[in-house]
Amino acid sequence: MSEGGQNGMDALQLVQANVVACRKCPRLVAHRERVAREKVRRYRGEEYWGKPIPSFGDRKARMLIVGLAPAAHGGNRTGRIFTGDRSSDFLFAALYKAAFANQPWSRHREDGLTLRDCYITAAVRCAPPDNKPTPQELATCQPYLVEEIRLLRRARVVVALGRIAFEAFLKAWVQAGRSVPFPRPQFAHGAVAELPGGVRLIASYHPSQQNTQTGRLTAPMFHRIFARARQALGSLPPNRAGQNTRQK
User: Fold this and answer.
1) CATH of the domain at 142
2) 146: domain range?
3) Which of 10, 27, 220, 248 lies 20 to 30 Å (CA to CA) from residue 208?
């Protein structure tokens, strides 16, 4: 889509507008809206977003982060993925240390957060019950990720947070017309795969409370993931296909 398309939006903006308006998964729609109505006591005075969450970040980013889904009282409340919960604190402390963010927190949409050379998206855009989307819900949401992969042409490093996000990214990567090496990359924390076209895929445990509070994922472990991403961006050659970074 050319600049100045539907309602003056470019292609990436149109993807996000379609995300926010999406009502394709009845179970997810019912859950996200029920949570937004009923709330929890600590946020009872706040107005919840209660809709699908758009992705966000630097449109010219060389690093793409793929998460699982918004949290019921994080992104579903604030309207921005990885915002307003403990997972966001863990993530942005690491991004700040690696110079991908201007501050080590993400609390609400007007908190002054800016991502640098980094774009954040997710496999599923609505908060799922028990943080567990169904295979059908993942498949229904996948076209949004496919379009983002096609549009974010400068991306040279992808960090997948958790096994589900890792698999969702690889499926979307193939649907976007790209190929994967043989043998197919397998998920393991810290695993690195070289994808055709000069893109490096780095796997990480998800910074969920279940992982961080049990010590399965520690802050030093997580910081090393983004230090590795920063190092990779310094060592990878320029993406010639993405030199014209203006979205069309």
Assistant:
1) 3.40.470.10
2) 7-236
3) 27
